[in-house]
C-alpha cells in the first residue's frame, strides 16, 4: 500500500463517524498488538489507509513485508474479504490472513506502492476488466450504494435539490437497462490506485458493491475533480465503455462527489 506518511485517518474517521470512532481509536493499539501476536507480525510504520481504516507496514515471521489493515465496526470488512478472495491477488493485493470478527486483514505489500495519479487509460481499463468479475458473493447493489452517497451529499449540503432529483432519476433509469451485474470496486479513484512492479497497477481499499461496472469508470474519470476529465472520459469510451451510460454515471458521481 503506500509510502509512510503522517497519520491522517484518525481525524477523518472521527469527523465522519464521531464518538464510535473515538472509542475504537482508544482500543486500536491493543487490537494491533493482539493481531500482531496471533499472526506473528513485527509492527512498522503507519501508512496511508484511506479515511476509515488503519493501515500499518508489518513484517511476517518469514521476513516478508505485508500490510495490516484494521477497520472499525462501521466498515464492511466481510465484503472486502470476500472480494479479495474472489479476485485472488489479480487486480488487488493478495489476502494473506483475515479475521472478520476483529475486522483485520493482512495484505501483500505492493511495491513500489506509489499512487498512480497519471496512470494510462489502457492500464486502467485492463484493471477494471479484472475487477469486474460476476458477483457470486451477494454484495449490496450499486444503486443502493449510490443512493446512500446522494443522501449524504444532501445532508452535507453539497448538492442542490434540483441536481439531487436529477441524479436519483438518472440512477433509476440506469438500473432499468443495466448490464449483467459484476463486482464494482466502489471507490475507484487515484487515491486507491497504486503502481505495482508485478502488475503495473493495483487497486486497493474497495468499498464493494454489485452492478454496472461503468460506475467505476465514471469514478475514475471524475477523479475528485482533477483536471483532464474530458480526456479520461474519451479514453474510457475508447476502451469500450458505452458513451451514454458513462456520461450519465459521470454526472451522478459529480453530484455525490
Give the % helix: 40-55%
Helix/strand order, N-terminal first: HHEEEHEEEHHHEEEEHHH
Structural class by SSE content? alpha+beta
pLDDT < 50 runs, ≥5 residues: 1-7
Describe this structure in words.
- With 257 residues, this protein is an alpha+beta fold.
- 45% of the residues lie in helices and 19% in strands.
- The protein has 9 helices and 10 strands.
- Strands 1-2-3-5-4 form a 5-stranded antiparallel beta sheet, with helices on both faces. It has a 3-stranded antiparallel beta sheet with strand order 6-8-9, with helices on one face.
- Strand 4 (95-99) and strand 5 form a beta hairpin.
- The model is unreliable at 1-7 (pLDDT under 50).
What does the secondary structure layout of this molecule look like, with pairings?
Layout: H1 9-17, H2 19-39, E1 42-47, E2 53-59, E3 65-71, H3 77-87, E4 95-99, E5 104-108, E6 112-115, H4 121-131, H5 142-155, H6 161-176, E7 182-184, E8 193-196, E9 200-203, E10 209-211, H7 214-222, H8 229-238, H9 243-256
Antiparallel strand pairs: 1-2, 2-3, 3-5, 4-5, 6-8, 7-10, 8-9
Helix pairs in contact: 1-2, 5-6, 5-9, 6-9, 7-8, 7-9
